[in-house]
Amino acid sequence: MIEKMQRDQARTDRNRTILIVVASIVVGLAIIAYPAVRLIQDSQTKNQAATELGVAASAASCEAPTNDEAAGTQDHKPDGTVINYSVSPPSSGSHYAVWAPFNKKFYTLDDRPPIPNLVHNLEHGYTILWYKDSLPKDQIDQIEKISKAKLPDSSSGKFIAAPFRETDGKPWPDGKSIAFSHWSGNAQGQDKAFGHRQFCGSVSGDALKQFMDKYPSTDAQEPAGG
Questions:
Q1: pTM of this structure
Q2: Which of 143, 211, 127 has the alpha carbon at shortest distance from 177?
Q3: Burial class, 135, CB count within 10 angstroms (exposed 0-12 / middle 13-18 / buried 19+)
Q4: pLDDT tens digits, residue range 11-60?
């Protein structure tokens, strides 16, 4: 009887060990596979035109772009300074001396730099796609894919997507959860510069391209840089 109990216990221990080993292998493979799958997905997205992502421009419920009187060229404020922008999201204005990294195109609430850093990028010809932080995850995922896809030549790759909190500025138009912004240079024969914003109700790589083509990266206060 004792020997039988010992054999049964040994069998139980052996089966438990096998289960632990199998479970460890499955978890290990999952850990290895996840970044590999993301790498494949990112590679596929990189070869995809941004215009293929999201809805068509005609279905995005976009308003006409604004012409905001611009100010703040090379007006650098110390980090931490509270800057109240006249329009929301900002399309120009005073900003911090350091811009957001040129090689990073997508931000979440966890890693987004202060808005005055991003405004500095606008000064260098960037287009920023701002999205409400309350946007559903599947739409935020679409925006992240757009940031990794082929952007129009007019952008020169100068693009950032970043979340916008309700407390970051004045309310947006009703039903609009996406906004593009760009800071144009002084047009020939004009003594004023303008910032531009366009609000949309849905994610649309097509609408983004049209905005970027209208306000290319070379149309900027300081086109050099980035």
A1: 0.80
A2: 143
A3: middle
A4: 676 777 777 767 677 666 667 654 543 444 444 467 899 999 999 999 99
